[in-house]
Prior knowledge:
Helices cover 9% and strands 48% of the residues.
Amino acid sequence: MNKPDYKRPSKVLHWKDAMLLLESGEPCDIKVWKLSTGDILEYKGAVCVGKHWRGGTHTVRLPLSQVLRTFRDITLFEINGYEIYR
């Protein structure tokens, strides 16, 4: 039987704690799903620069290119090697 390429982390973190970690302003390694295709997007060293609580989105700045990326909170499934559960 073939195993998938993605290895699940052995550590877990609650969603609220993950949001606090993301919003701390420290660089984080995050993984999110792209809703339109289901691809996994990995952002290394991303720094949170904005959030929209009612819209359920966060905006991060990527360190190398200084590009802003916005993602829906529900698509975030891993932060700093911790799997997120709700």
